[in-house]
Write a structure and sequence with these properties.
Pfam families: Phosphonate-bd
Domain Solute-binding protein family 3/N-terminal: 25-242
Number of strands: 10
Number of domains: 2
Number of helices: 13
CATH architecture of the largest domain: 3-Layer(aba) Sandwich
Family: Belongs to the bacterial solute-binding protein SsuA/TauA family.
Helix content: 40-55%
Low-confidence stretches: 1-22
CATH topology of the largest domain: D-Maltodextrin-Binding Protein, domain 2
Keywords: Signal
Signal peptide: 1-23
Order of helices and strands: HEHHEHEHEEEHEHEHEEHHHHH
CATH class of the largest domain: Alpha Beta
Radius of gyration: 22 Å
Shape: globular
Distance between the termini: 50 Å
Mean pLDDT: 89
Length: 310
Amino acid sequence: MKTRTLKLSLLGTLLAFALPAQALELNIGYQKSALNLASLKAQGTLEKQLKPLGVEVKWFEFQAGPPLLEAMNAGSVSIGMTGDSPPVFAQAAGADIVYIGQEPAKPESSAILVPANSAIKTLADLKGKRIAFTKGSSAHYLTVAALQHAKLAYTDITPVYLSPSEARAAFERGSVDAWTIWDPYYAAAQKAGGVRVLSTGKGLTGNNTFYLAQRAYAKANPKVIDVVFKALSANDDWLKSDAKKVAATLSGYTGLEAETYEAMLSRNPSYSVSYLQPGVDAQQQKVADAFFSLGLIPKAIKVKDAFWKP
């Protein structure tokens, strides 16, 4: 009996050595606004850099941040990039995700748009109007901040919760009075014409961009995250090099028009990535507190509880 047990044990050991080690997956969630990530995807940069570490890279595109973080919480996405509001809603809902890094603030990359011939001239004129935006997105917070600035209550408007593509369709057929949106949808709408910028985020919100991860993935794979961040920061040098050339190259990768990318680059010249910077927790706490005070998230949260340090 002992001999048989020894043989089985030896066989198991040999099989373990014979089977190839399973590759670690890095599932990246990105949006069209994630210029730096989309660029790395098109070039295959991360695949080349992470292959020697036994990491397999997979990409998943989302229209907005909230569904991206839902997929992350479900375990389908390892890391991803969103605006300021999606992680607040996710944390309040109990998602086990963490902030791992950030890009420079870009308040002018989002805007509240109205039809070119609209009678709406000031933020105060939004009273009683129907405003389209994606619930739980950075556009949601820009709308809230704009109303606060105009001394209007959230109940003074009718929010129309739509995805970016649905919101554009509603805006173009006149079903809503205004549309709060971010790049590249903002730039694409400007290029199409017939719109006027009522306000950008300047003076209203920092419009911070965050990189997030499953908490367990971040804890287990800090080296992978470091490779990703270094690749993104190195790629930012290329994004800054020649706006027209970069826009044309990106257009070839993605199919979006080069003029859209030129507008994005002019509004936000830096897409460099860093680990979380001092003071960003206070900015993000302001976003969370605003949503809680309006009853838009179910509980008060301390955003710093979801901050990860490598």
